Amino acid sequence: MIYLDNAATTHPKPPGVAAAVAAAMDGFGNCGRGAYQDALSAARVVYETREQAAELFGCSRPDHVVFTANITESLNIALFGLLNPGDHVISTDLEHNSVLRPLYRLQKAGTAVDFVPADSNGQIDYEEFTRLLRPQTRAVVCTHASNVTGDLTDLDRIGAFCRSHGLLFILDTAQTAGVFPIDMERQQIDVVCFTGHKGLMGPQGTGGICLREHVEIRPWKTGGTGVQSFLEDQPMEYPTRLEAGTLNSHGIAGLHAALSFLKETGLETIHRREDAMARRFYEAVRKLPGVRVYGNFTAQERAAVVSLNIADLDAADVSDELGERFQIATRPGVHCAPRMHRALGTERQGTVRFSWSYFNSEEETDLAAEAVRILAAEAR
Amino acid sequence: MREKTEKFVVTFRTTAGAIAMERACHAADVPGRLIPVPRSITAGCGMCWAAPPGARAGVEELIVHERLDVDGLYAILL
């Protein structure tokens, strides 16, 4: 199988990740639930992983790195814990349902929501942020890259906009963490939500939130923390404030190994390799008769995602053919991004998404392009 | 049971704070170790840093320098 669905989850993982999870399962007690060696081993690795995430995202304090099960949970915690009825929030048409559905639920409860529209090629006009601003605007929440097209949003520009208007900037890094540099301080991002199993190349079931100091998120759950046990409310100190219950220290140990691999390899190296393969594929398929590729490939920087259609073929049929006949794994459909597909005009056809990781090869890329060429020729 | 001796004890509001203390003390070669919080301090749960009394100045300096999340400082028999 040629695996080109890394935007859904990276596969394979770096050497050492699975071994770290197995070693943790064999050796860890419960993080923060005792002062004996096995519990301390877990707590130490969890803390070191907070330090790694803080360094990666430019978060000033490791204790402001909160672990969650995935980025959907992170975004839910941030949005429901920061926004209130009467507030106004600005987002974009590029978003995944992990942002959209919490926003729609908030909207029903009295939070006003506006979306910066995407055009028919998935591009947004940044002047729209200013036009949508209201006195009640409290925050901007957006993705760093469309999971459909791979196009990046301009973090520097949105961060500066948020800072100049006193807004919170909440960022979804699902498609960019571990590949592109993100610096909360320099780019003026208040809340970075991340998942462990995509670009960070850790296990599924890991994710988190990095917070700037003084960002006050209401705890979404309460329960055991291993500290302050006679307090009736959830302790308000981070990270405990948002971490009731046993942490996934086994998964976090795998994430620790993955973050070590990222640091040793370097984000720039990873990005350049992924980008070269995605652009190689794009160049091979973009002029094929009947093939339409979505997104802006003139941009200097973009995530390693290529979404396309062949004539008017159902994207699901094309993806199934790629899988069954060519053993190439891709993701068809609307990729949990309904507003983006509506903007692209693909809400009925969907698109076939190819997405690369550091562990793909040029040979795999060329085989995928050849499979598209064959299917496009057959569709004529 | 071991004979009790005087210790300097630091409690924390989070587990992350306790581990941060351990790392800071190890890096600075300040003696001590993490132990369960004794009942004489609080009947809750969690970990605290227990150090010989002579390490107090070094520990207090680290608390300020590393902005460690400390709940309380105690001199007790342990």
What does this structure look like?
The complex is a heterodimer of chains A (380) and B (78). Chain A has 380 residues and is α/β, with parallel strands linked by helices. Chain A has 2 domains: 2-10 and 266-378, Aspartate Aminotransferase, domain 1; 17-265, Type I PLP-dependent aspartate aminotransferase-like (Major domain) (Aspartate Aminotransferase, domain 2, 3-Layer(aba) Sandwich), CATH 3.40.640. In chain A, 39% of the residues lie in helices and 15% in strands. Chain A is built from 12 helices and 13 strands. In chain A, the strands form 3 sheets. A 7-stranded mixed β-sheet of chain A has the order 2-8-7-6-5-3-4, with helices on both faces. Chain A has a 4-stranded antiparallel β-sheet with strand order 9-10-13-12, with helices on one face. Chain A has a two-stranded parallel ribbon with strand order 1-11. Chain A is globular and about 70 Å long. Chain A starts with a strand and ends with a helix. Chain B has a single domain (6-77), classed as Alpha-Beta Plaits (2-Layer Sandwich). Helix content of chain B is 31%, strand content 31%. Chain B is an alpha+beta fold. The longest helix of chain B has 14 residues, at 15-28. The mean pLDDT of chain B is 93. Chain B has helices at residues 15-28, 56-65; strands spanning 6-12, 33-36, 47-51, 70-77. The chains are: A alpha/beta (380), B alpha+beta (78). At the A-B interface, helix 2 of A face helix 1 and strand 2 of B.
Which features characterize this protein?
heterodimer; A: alpha/beta; Aspartate Aminotransferase, domain 1; 12 helices; globular; B: alpha+beta; Alpha-Beta Plaits; four-stranded antiparallel β-sheet; 2 helices
